[in-house]
Design brief:
Strand content: 15-25%
CATH architecture of the largest domain: Alpha-Beta Complex
Low-confidence stretches: 1-17
Mean pLDDT: 95
Bound molecules: oxalic acid, manganese (II) ion
Structural class: alpha+beta
Number of domains: 3
Largest sheet: 9 strands, mixed
Length: about 600
């Protein structure tokens, strides 16, 4: 590839030369077009080098975008405080812009593409005046994988650049991967004035384009993650015959040294990162857990008829509050250096703290930059405060996490945060019923999205905010995928969050969730005792490994109970989802629901 310095036609630009490591004409034309629209003062093509990272970080510190943290205690770490109105994904301002509204489906906001381009185009027009426009070429997926996809994000945010460099394989490596092809996702992002009235995240699946304006928050602004890897990814997956899922991927190694890979879909902020990095309890010697991914899985049918998954991301953008030595010791190790923290508390010795990490410091500076003490009514960290860190820093990272072919999935888990109804774990009898269970998944809402927290909502396969096309067609696609799998993963449902009458969790969770995974793996081998119930196979009391756990039979029984009345109500409640999806709800799922209703009566 030839390195060249080109001069673009920019009458508005003050500094008009930039080093571009590509001869890719469609890419250069598109960047020139976006430059004409946004009118930046200068253009910086991100090359991905360490030198560049150092220079950008220095500039971010100078401009107050990043605060350098204690070099001894947290080497290479920085703190960022976002605008207080810009702390989570905004689902009501997220749009799927298909020509035909029907194809966006009833669970997405829709805007006609022409209107979206016009409305956002007016906001983008001149939005980068006096600023630098960064061009970030990036790969989602391991560089050597045939399943990876290239995106290019244009942004005015140095914070976005620094995060994208961690979350994706960014820079010249992506240009090399792309070559002269025009097959790349075009992402335009501008923080503009951060006005929530002028905030939009628009997806154009037919153009492989994403336009996002008015927010610097990760899920809205790091366009490789939710926008490309899930919303456009799911739509591409339907066209091309694969699945883009909101799932962690984890390898479970038993004491015999055999490794089984599990993918699990839980809604945002329901513990995917914790499960992906689980540390086995002391009472399970010989067991090991290997992290492949904590948020997104791209899955295909392999030549062997199994489902194979890659993690398209290169980093973790995890929720900080609640992360601790107890809930996720591996995450604590991972983020002990070279990490960007967003919206957490800054301590007096210039380290970080958040609710749920451990004892609070006597005083500090809260996420909004205000003085804070444990007596403050405000939280020290924003509940959706985050850490951004390279996956390779995780002490449990799997040796296969960048395998070009991915890892073979033995089991899929669906799960939510449910105080009632759903037992700790159950296995579905087959793929079709598993799809029905995934489709009707429900969970209590969390702080990862703007809006009320703690309300039960249906979140099919944890994809409600991320499915880039009609949800009914998505269910159909899942059913079709099942038909292509001669050796499909088994499908389970888990719920770590069931409580007793007093609201106390019945199951200890965290590392002890490995006990549930042990049963899951047993079942994949035709082992693991289970009772057949109307909803599926539930472990018998003695089937779960409770060695060293100290849980009473009564408590375990309550965690595993299937209450017919509650399930009857649950099945009735699913009616709202079935009506919403309407005529595109696959008949097979209608029948699964009817059959369950019959089994319960
Ligand atoms: C995330 C989310 O950031 O799901 O992963 O919101
Ligand atoms: Mn997520």
């Amino acid at each position: 590839m030839t390195m060249m310095t080109m001069t673009l036609d920019r009458s508005h630009a003050m500094q008009s030369t930039t080093t571009v490591a590509t001869t890719n004409r469609p890419l250069r034309d598109w960047v020139a077009e976006m430059e004409t629209l946004c009118k930046p003062e200068r253009v910086h093509w991100v090359d991905g080098s360490d030198l560049e990272a150092a220079a950008l970080t220095e500039e971010a510190v100078k401009r107050g975008i990043l605060i350098g943290l204690n070099e001894e205690k947290l080497p290479g770490c920085y703190l960022h405080r976002s605008h207080p109105n810009d702390v989570a994904r905004v689902e009501k301002l997220t749009f799927i812009c298909t020509e035909d509204e029907k194809n966006a489906g009833p669970t997405n906001n829709w805007m006609p593409p022409a209107e979206a381009y016009k409305r956002l185009g007016e906001i983008f027009d001149g939005s980068m005046k006096g600023r630098t426009m960064y061009v970030i070429p990036y790969i989602m997926g391991p560089a050597a994988s045939p399943f990876s996809k290239v995106g290019v994000e244009i942004t005015d945010s140095i914070y976005v650049v620094l995060n994208m460099r961690i979350m994706t394989r960014a820079g010249n490596i992506a240009l090399e991967h792309l070559g002269n092809s025009d097959d790349f996702v075009r992402g335009l992002h501008c923080t503009a004035d951060l006005n929530p009235e002028r905030r939009y995240i628009c997806h154009f699946p037919q153009d492989k384009t994403i336009w996002s304006v008015g927010s610097g928050y990760g899920g809205n602004a790091l366009l490789g993650k939710k926008c490309l890897a899930l919303r456009l990814g799911s739509a591409l997956g339907q066209r091309e015959g694969w699945l883009a899922e909101h799932m962690l991927i984890v390898g479970i190694e038993n004491p015999r040294g055999e490794i089984f890979y599990v993918a699990a879909a839980f809604p945002s902020a329901c513990g995917k990162t914790n499960l992906a990095m689980l540390v086995p309890p002391d009472s399970m010697p010989g067991w090991k857990v290997w992290t492949v991914g904590d948020d997104i899985a791209w899955m295909r049918v392999g030549p062997d008829g199994r489902l194979w998954a890659i993690n398209p991301e290169a980093g973790f953008f995890g929720v900080a509050p609640g992360t601790s030595e107890k809930s996720n010791p591996n995450a604590m190790r991972t983020i002990s250096h070279d990490t960007i923290f967003t919206n957490v508390l800054q301590t007096e010795d210039n380290t970080v703290w958040w609710e749920g990490m451990g004892p609070a410091p006597a005083r500090g500076t809260d996420w909004k930059g205000q003085p804070w003490t444990p007596e403050s009514t405000e939280k020290g960290a924003q509940p959706n405060g985050r850490f951004t860190v390279a996956a390779r820093q995780c002490p449990a990272i799997s040796s296969k996490w960048e395998a070009p072919e991915g890892v073979p999935i033995s089991a899929i888990l669906f799960g939510g945060r449910r105080a009632r109804v759903a037992p700790l774990v159950y296995e579905t009898p087959d793929w079709q019923h598993g799809v029905y269970v995934g489709a009707t998944m429900a969970s209590e809402t969390t702080a990862a999205a703007a809006g009320a927290v703690g309300v039960v909502r249906r979140d099919p396969m944890a994809m409600l905010p991320f499915c880039g096309y009609h949800m009914g067609d998505y269910f159909e696609h899942w059913l079709e995928m099942g038909k292509k799998l001669s050796n499909p993963p088994r499908i389970f449902h888990v719920n770590w969050f069931r409580t007793d009458e007093q609201g106390k969790c019945l199951w200890p969770g965290f590392g002890d969730n490995l006990r549930v995974l042990q049963w899951v793996i047993d079942r994949c081998h035709g082992e693991g005792k289970a009772d057949e119930t109307p909803i599926g196979f539930v472990p018998t009391l003695d089937a779960l490994n409770t060695e060293g756990l100290g849980i009473s039979d009564t408590q375990l029984r309550a965690a595993l109970a299937v209450d017919r009345q509650q399930w009857h109500d649950e099945v009735e409640d699913q009616g709202t989802l079935f009506e919403l999806i309407g005529e595109r709800m696959p008949q097979a799922l209608v029948e699964e629901r009817e059959a369950l209703r019959r089994r319960l009566s």
